[in-house]
Write a structure and sequence with these properties.
Elements lengths: L4 H15 L4 H8 L3 H8 L7 H11 L10
Helix pairs in contact: 2-3, 2-4
């Protein structure tokens, strides 16, 4: 089954976070989110707003386009 864009973006967030050796808890804290919300985002179970994605990109120190390189 084809992954949704939510799932693809969530997987990218997880990949980038893991490459940078940042725990899910630390990323959630940097974004001012609950860890459970970060988990939902990474699993593709949350429909992130642009402002949410902006916070994640800032916390990961990446350009927005990185989230969509799948």
């Amino acid at each position: 089954m084809e992954q949704t864009i939510q799932q693809k973006v969530g997987k990218r967030i997880q990949e980038i976070r893991t490459k940078k050796n940042i725990s899910q808890q630390d990323l959630a804290s940097k974004c001012n989110f609950e860890k459970s919300n970060m988990s939902r985002l990474e699993n593709g179970n949350a429909n992130a707003t642009l402002s949410t994605l902006e916070k994640v990109c800032n916390a990961l120190e990446i350009d927005y386009i990185e989230l969509f390189k799948f």
